[in-house]
Amino acid sequence: MIRYYLLSVILLCHLPGIGQNNTLPREKVYHLNYKIDIPLTAGLYIGNYFGFDQLGKKPELNQEQISFLDMKDVSAFDRIALKQSSSNRYQAQKLSDWGRNISLLLPALLLIDRQIRRDWLDVALLYMETQAVNFSVYILAGPSFTERARPFVYYPEIPLEDKMVNGSTDSWFSGHTSSTAAASFFMAKVYSDYHPELGNKKVLAVRGRFDPDSFCRVQQV
């Protein structure tokens, strides 16, 4: 998993910077203190490394524990996950991995924007911090302290030895979902910070055909 974080950082740092004019005076969007942010980010990643290592040593389910699992004990909201075709389990896992890995690299697209590209170091560092905090929360508040069986453990047609593996109780909460959300929200937030003109008025205006201010005045009359 660590290799995907490093790959995202490499892409962020090596996209081309053609067409920049760094001589123009401008106010920076983000003001980072490298003496604090860099050591803090490094410390979080070191902690995450050992955290994931400990997570990998989490005890597996045994046969007795599996035998006591009952679909009726799962909330109705989540029970749909127990009614899927088990034959598609590996395909779904592969699609989930691909989706997560692609999303981790999405913020690199921000560097297509000239204004953001000028601050590539700040943006890259902020993204690393974002994912570092995300994984720290995942380790400290997720499967390290919860014992929730993954859906496939409930399927009777899946061999018992496939259920007695590390990670079978890591169903809460989803690391794939949290890392994907962190990358997506980060990308949207950074772009909106660099382009504050993309507000409600511009979106609702639809190329001048709709003026929110005029609409409000009409409604007040």
Characterization of the model:
The protein is mainly α. It has one domain (2-14, 29-194). Helices cover 56% and strands 0% of the residues. The chain has ten helices and no strands. Helix 4 (89-105) packs parallel to helix 8 (175-194). The chain is elongated, with a radius of gyration of 23 Å. Mean pLDDT is 80; it is low at 2-24 and 214-221.
Radius of gyration: 23 Å
Q: Spans with pLDDT under 50 lasting ≥5 residues?
A: 2-24, 214-221
Shape: elongated
Secondary-structure-derived class: mainly alpha
Kindly state the percentage of residues in helix.
55-70%
Please tally the β strands and state the result: 0
Oligomer: single chain
Largest sheet: none
Secondary-structure element sequence? HHHHHHHHHH
- Tell me the distance between the termini: 59 Å
| Overall pLDDT | 80
How many domains in all? 1
**Binned strand content:** under 5%
- Total helices: the number is 10
